Amino acid sequence: MMTSYKKLSILFLVGLTSSIFIGCSQKKNNEKWISLFNGKNLDGWTVKISGYDLGYNYNNTFRVENGVMKVSYDQYDNFEGQFGHIFYEKPFSHYIIRIEYRFVGDQVPGGPAWAFRNNGIMFHCQNPETMRKDQNFPVSIEAQILGGNGTDERPTANVCTPGTHIVMDDSLITQHCINSSSKTFHGDQWVTMEVEVNGSGTINHFVNGDLVFVYEKPQLDKNDEDAKNLIKDGKVLIEEGYISLQAESHPIEFRKVELLVLDK
pLDDT tens for residues 191-229? Predict the structure, then answer.
């Protein structure tokens, strides 16, 4: 998904930065990380690819090889909008999700230009069973995974909002994607990304240990057709949801997918 914004807005909670780091340090002193990916197979995960039924792994897009979860397009002749997501089996509310990823190889023919070295961690996702068969993206918040093209600046850990909005500096942000303050990672290097999710409260993005984005109050977009179906009793704030990893037409590998449950 495409990105743009004034980076100054990213640090709208800069006054809280010190407490954020202290809080994260305290949480990790007694950490009990859960490995969501077992390194052997896709047990615990369910695939949803646009145009296909839930659970159908079209062209073996998601697979495990040599201990690594892969998004692969070697069985595709051409990409024709088969945007994919692989969902973990249970929802979470307060947690840190940590992944180690790298982009590899070439984008599949037919993939959109904006999807070059572009995937994401989708969190606060709708239940995949509620997705339409031809729905491209779950209603969710996305911590965008973006790789460099060898020349231009392309920060990672940006935020995108399919069917949702966020709040920054007490203002509702309806722009779809916003850049983080992360540096660009060119080539096929491994990168560690963490997203700290505090229910409907503050959300923090970290890249290789550095805080690069802060926002709060994730909420459903009342004007989005898919999101409207999820609004109950007028409540738009999102307190919990499923986690998924994206497949947007460029191969990527995940060697770790871990989660630390936080106290509410």
Answer: 999 999 999 999 999 999 999 999 999 999 999 999 999
pTM: 0.90
Q: Which tokens belong to 158?
A: 């940006």
DSSP state of 260: E
The closest alpha carbon to 123, from 196, 173, 71, belongs to 196
Which residues lie closer than 8 Å to 23 by C-beta, 6 or more apart?
A: none
Cα 195 to Cα 102, 224, 227, distances in angstroms: 17, 25, 22
Distance in angstroms between the alpha carbons of the first and the last residue of the chain:
31
Alpha-carbon span 78 to 111, nearest angstrom: 8
pLDDT in tens, 128-145: 999 999 999 999 999 999
Show the domains of the chain with their CATH numbers: 7-261 (2.60.120.560)
Look up residue 89 and give its two tokens.
């089996």
Amino acid identity of residue 119, one-letter, is: N
